Amino acid sequence: MPMRTRAAALAALTVAALAAGTVLTAPAGAAPMKAPWPRFLAASELPPHPSSTWTASPVADGFPAELAPCLGEGVPAYDYRHRVFHTDLDTGAVQVTVVTGSAAKGKALAALLDEEIGSCADRIEQSDPDIEAEGRSYGSLPVEEGARVHGLHTATSWGATDVHLLSVGRDGRTVTVVGWGQMGDFDDAPVGAFKKTTTRAVEKLY
């Protein structure tokens, strides 16, 4: 997906981007992990859409472009895998999972990703004056080693408005990030259902 800046890319992150399936390959030096891999979310485990069913792509290697606007720079080199989901309308989702070398490394990676997501709105506004961004914290979830849920809203000078929910969770050395997005604002975000999706995603890591 062409990107003028990370901020402009995020503002354009509608279902077309979420369904594209473009992969950012992990940097050289990432050690490949052997099977078995943790299980990924199924389409039926995503927040229900009021008028469309979810479709899940096959699990693929690499870090997904759908999360690049907030996490595409400085993500540590690991053997990431991901799955992209889409509806027939303007809603899409993505999950990326990585198995690190130890629980300590998993904890450090989860903390880094959570910090990057938490500061994403500020970085968007600093990088592009045509975009207003607001981040929200929706708190932590008591599942395995924990998960945190964030919201992000962007509005552009040309009228585009998008809302996203993002979460980071960990079970031991395994970390997962789940993202959901559509056109709209915070009132359109299914926070309660997304928390259930995040809980399920972390439960499936072991």
Helix content: 10-25%
Could you tell me how far the N terminus lies from the C terminus, measured between alpha carbons in angstroms? Answer: 33 Å
Structurally, the number of domains stands at 1
Which stretches are poorly predicted, pLDDT < 50 over at least 5 residues? 1-33
Assign the CATH architecture: 3-Layer(aba) Sandwich
**Number of E-type strands:** 10
Task: Determine the mean pLDDT.
Answer: 84
* SSE order: HHEEEEHEEHHEEEEH
Radius of gyration: 16 Å
For this structure, the CATH topology is Protein Transport Mog1p, Chain A
For the sheet with most strands, the description reads: 8 strands, antiparallel
Summarize it:
The chain is of the alpha+beta class and 206 residues long. The chain has 6 helices and 10 strands, in the order ααββββαββααββββα.
